[in-house]
Amino acid sequence: QIPVPVLRISASQHPVKAGLSDAFMVLNPSPDVPESRRRTIYEYHRVELDTSRITSLSAVEFTPLPTCLQHQSCEMCVSSELTFNCSWCHVLQRYL
Question: Do 28 and 53 have their domain in common?
Fold first, then answer.
């Protein structure tokens, strides 16, 4: 059960987001405290959900698009109809 409607949650302290995303994190030394590290998170490929549709007892299903990972041979890789440019490496016997 959702105790508060998502649209009523204040974004003043922390932005309200719902969805799926890829990211990577880099740990950098903090200039103020030499023993500590500062986390920097770089987000990319975000899929956001319409927060007005999030209700109690609701569910979301994500269906991934085809990727190079699905190809096990050069022929399958180069003949695929993906929307990006991947290629097959004969030396490694995998996609690039």
Answer: yes
Domain residues for 77?
Answer: 64-95
- SS3 for the chain, per residue? CCCCCHHHCCCCCCCCCCEEEEEEEEEEECCCCCCCEEEEEEEEEEEECCHHHCCCCCCCCCCCCCCHHHCCCHHHHHHCCCCCCCCEECCCCEEC
Per-residue pLDDT of 6-58, as tens digits, reads 888 888 877 888 888 888 899 888 777 777 778 888 988 888 888 888 889 98
State how many domains the chain has.
2
- Whether residues 39 and 77 share a domain: the answer is no
